[in-house]
Amino acid sequence: EFKAPPDPRTVSPPQPPALYIGALFPMSGGWPGGQACLPAAQMAMDLVNNRTDILPDYELELIHYDSMCDPGEATKLLYDLLYTEPIKIVLMPGCSSVSTLVAEAARMWNLIVLSYGSSSPALSNRQRFPTFFRTHPSATLHNPTRVQLFQKWKWTKIATIQQTTEVFTSTLDDLEDRVAEAGIEISVRQSFLTDPAVAVKNLKRQDARIIVGLFYETEARKVFCEVYKEKLYGKKYVWFLIGWYADNWFKINDPSINCTVEQMTEAVEGHVTTEIVMLNPETVRGASNLTSQEFLAQLMSKLGGKNPEETGGFQEAPLAYDAVWALALALNKTVGPLKAKGHRLEDFNYNNRAITAEIYRAMNTSSFEGVSGHVVFDAQGSRMAWTLIEQLQGGSYKKIGYYDSTKGNLSWYGNDKWIGSGPPADQTVVIEEFRYLSQKLFVSVSVFAGLGILLGIVCLTFNIYNSNVRYIQNSQPYLNNMTAVGCMMALAAVFPLGIDGLHVHRRQFPVVCQFRLWLLGLGFSLAYGSMFTKIWWVHTVFTKKDDKKDKRKHLEPWKLYATVGVLLSIDILSLMIWQLVDPLHITVEKFTREAPKGDLDVLIQPLLEHCSSEKMNTWLGVVYGYKGLLLLLGIFLAYETKSISTEKINDHRAVGMAIYNVAVLCMITAPVTMILSSQQDASFAFASLAIVFSVYITLVVLFVPKMRRLITRGEWQSDAQETMKTGSSTNNNDEEKSRQLERENKELQKIIQEVSRKLSLFHRSLYSKYHLYLNICQEGSMIRRCRHFQKYDK
């Protein structure tokens, strides 16, 4: 039967094959984001299907359910989506908990998952979620912005406080990795579950200054109430908070805190927020040919005049809109490559990995301008977006800059004005300040030391010039010369004792340490060693028995010089071993930090330079022990010889007085300077004045009496012969008297012995007569005399 052809005007064109998207929009529950995100997605779907340059041979269709932001409900709905026709080519969940469930299961069905409302950092795990993408940036997107700010404001030390939830823990773990790469230290990390009081106190105690806070809005009010109580706010502190709190979050009446609105406003002033930009701030037409403001106008129209603040997901609606566009552009990009391989999008099934791989590659390389900004995904499938930086100034938030994570650029509004005088330091600024010796004290003591050296030169010159005078010869002038030289060396040690980092560079300071040690050590050995040798010889000669004393009265000078040489050699050898085994070097002692006057966020760290070695106490113990024994022995010898008079060393009593002086001062000074080593002025004053006084007393006691004698008695070298005779006769008076007394003593001892012998003989004779009379009386003879004898005997 013949039929007429149909009228082309009445025949509808064939419908293009549909590509189905399975979506879960939470219309209720913890986050009812579907209330605004679903209309936005439908707007994008209509625009895509009306475009002839995007998927012209296909039509996108949205199959959606209400997940209620509940993983249990989402499990049931996912089962329905997967096992109910038609086949879905992509899944679009919202809510982090639901997206986690869907993304982990989708790999088993070779499905791409594209989320519009999931911020959990855990979803950035490619091993666990290999086919997951999201247009909602990860919560960790705040971290690159924070790191950029830390680096810009030259902060290298931060602190963190977080609420113990998975999203904040993951965000903080990511922040730790990023700051470690940037060379920034997280010095304090505190967490709390419900009560932040202890955590805030720990931040205060550990001097936290730059603090990153990760917690929900209700906990933020609790935190800043404690911040107010602990005074952890002001120009010394910077708090970094999440920017998605309500603008007046700190003014909301909260019965869980006991702080007033005024106190809360004072505590939060100056804090910085980072907020992900979800609406393009620029007037640009992107892939949808709409500006962000045109999109908002159409969305408001589609919502039917609902209040945006009462519509769940209104802030995230641009992300849902751009999610549909990202999917459409990616599918459009796969048409050509699939056709070349003999595949079509409508051939997709849950076992077709080739089509899934092609869609994955297209999604991974997405890059276009959307109403939420530039859309691009990182290696983990997370959206890279702008982050807005604001600061609370005067009770309201002011934009100070933004960070473009797609380009890594940090830009600023205006002149990058910071509230107050500028960003504070990330910690209390510690200024190292070296303690130096008082220059007035150093100059004063140096003058005395210089005058003492001049006095030593005068004494040495006097002793050398008059060395042929008999009186000077009898004082062992060479030993006195050694004493004078040793005294001058000890005085010269005062100058390096007062030299510190104010006068020389630290590299040269060990040389100064060596001068101190060698001048003082060798000066002591020469000065005290020569005096000790004199007193030792006097004691050795005049405290022996008579038969040995006469043999040793002849003084051999070389033995005295050899004794001084031995003492000097011991010192040189010990100092050389010390410097070779454990050389002196500079050490820096730190003291308790001090706060300067005024409202300055600084502390002064006092430092003091010392000459030291690794085993300083051991070496000092050896040296002090050896010198201490010499001093004690010198005191003993001086005491033992105080009444002895000898012609060979006529000044040994003066030497004894000098030894007393040196020994007492040294024994007091050595331990006191060790105790006062941390007080540079007191230590130097005590040590240097002890040196000056002991040297002055030694020179005056040893040399001034000689000068006075030679001047007052005219015993000068110009009249050598007469001087020698006069000096000899005068000097021998005491010796002659001593010998005369000794001879008289011996004669008296002989007389006493003779008288004792005669008395003994007389006593024996008298005793014999007594017994004779006694016998006669007993025999009865001589009665008369016996009576008289008995009467006498009674």
Automatic annotation (TrEMBL):
Keywords: Cell membrane, Coiled coil, Disulfide bond, G-protein coupled receptor, Glycoprotein, Membrane, Phosphoprotein, Postsynaptic cell membrane, Receptor, Signal, Synapse, Transducer, Transmembrane, Transmembrane helix. Residues 721-742 are annotated as: Disordered. Residues 721-732 have a biased composition (Polar residues). The chain crosses the membrane at residues 441-466, 478-497, 517-537, 558-581, 618-639, 659-678, 684-704. GO terms for molecular function: G protein-coupled GABA receptor activity. Pfam families: 7tm_3, ANF_receptor. It is found in: Postsynaptic cell membrane. One of its GO terms (cellular component) is G protein-coupled receptor heterodimeric complex. It is a multi-pass membrane protein. Belongs to the G-protein coupled receptor 3 family. GABA-B receptor subfamily. This is Gamma-aminobutyric acid (GABA) B receptor, 1b. It comes from Dicentrarchus labrax.
